[in-house]
Amino acid sequence: MVHDTDEINAVEEKNRLLVDSGCATTVFERSHFHVPVQQRKTHFKLTNISGGSIQQFGHQEPQVVLPSGTYAKIPGTNVDAKRSALAVSESVDAGNTVVFSPQGSYLTRASVPIPFDAEMFQRDGKLWFLPLQEVSP
């Protein structure tokens, strides 16, 4: 388990993106990528989990190579944050499937069949929610 006070090796953070289903848009920590930052009008008011504002510096679209050897361009917003994060909603909108499971968690362009016992998430804008109702014990 990683706690807020734990330090992550900085070199390791440069070679990966946090995959976040609660992230409204893909964000890049200010010095993560070397590709130039393009000044653009911001699309979102970004806030951290505590409600504080996140400063935005512009748009970046780094080209990366994934462990499979696949090359990809990942569009995102360059921000003042501790780490970069890939927004699941934007990845899904780009045609990817994102799977988190005990057997492995991965990103794929392939169609993955939905299991018969799947609990479907509800999408609200760029966020995903698990519907539920509390029952009496």
Keywords:
2 helices, single chain, two-stranded parallel sheet, 137 residues, mainly beta, 3-stranded mixed beta sheet
In short:
The chain is mainly β. It is built from 2 helices and 11 strands.
Description:
- The protein is mainly β.
- The chain is built from two helices and eleven strands, in the order H-E-E-E-E-E-E-E-H-E-E-E-E.
- It has helices at 10-14, 88-93; strands spanning 18-20, 27-29, 56-60, 63-65, 71-73, 76-79, 85-87, 97-99, 106-108, 122-124, 127-129.
- The strands form five sheets. The chain has a three-stranded mixed β-sheet with strand order 2-6-3, with no helix packed on it.
- The longest helix is centred in the middle third of the chain and has 6 residues, at 88-93.
- The radius of gyration is 17 Å and the shape is globular.
- It starts with 9 loop residues before the first helix and ends in an 8-residue tail after the last strand.
Which helices and strands occur, and which strands form pairs?
Layout: H1 10-14, E1 18-20, E2 27-29, E3 56-60, E4 63-65, E5 71-73, E6 76-79, E7 85-87, H2 88-93, E8 97-99, E9 106-108, E10 122-124, E11 127-129
Parallel strand pairs: 1-7, 2-6
Antiparallel strand pairs: 3-6, 4-5, 8-9, 10-11
